[in-house]
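Give me the fold.
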Amino acid sequence: MINLEQLASNEFVIYANTIDNDVQEFGDYFLIGFQSGFTKEWSYVIPFVLVRNTRFLKFEITLVANISIEDPSNGEIYLSPSGNWDYKIWNTDYATLDPAIGTLIDSGQMILKDQTPPEVIFETFVSANEALQSVIFVPATGPDETVVYQSNNEGLQSYVYYTSNGIWNNTSNVPEADQNEWEENV
């Protein structure tokens, strides 16, 4: 699994022998494709190769703030929204953003982390026989200023939380029931 952080230079390793292989020859370039688990769209980048030996490859890519400043041919890419992504890595004979001409050498899962937690959450819920309602909530924060959520577990309601960066779904923060509550922002 690869973990990448928004607005940062990211280094990661995959285990593949692309130097000494009796079955096939490998080119000197690589292409990485990322598919968002939410949008299902693919984004491609040519990474910088930091280390290449018979055991592993160490790559570097930079995640930039928006699509207008990305340069995928030079290791800079814009990825959004944060969350679960799939990745594939191809080996190629020349620098290209087209995976069709490459040899697939690795695939797996990637987690794209937000650099900062969301500040405002929009709660939308649909309940049986009720109209669609939308309310803005200010999130409670824990002692380390991380955003936390405590479900009220009311029946027949389905919750989706939105931020300026897309859908927020964070189950890693476990709130303490006596101190964390959502407060309606009126």
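The radius of gyration is 21 Å.
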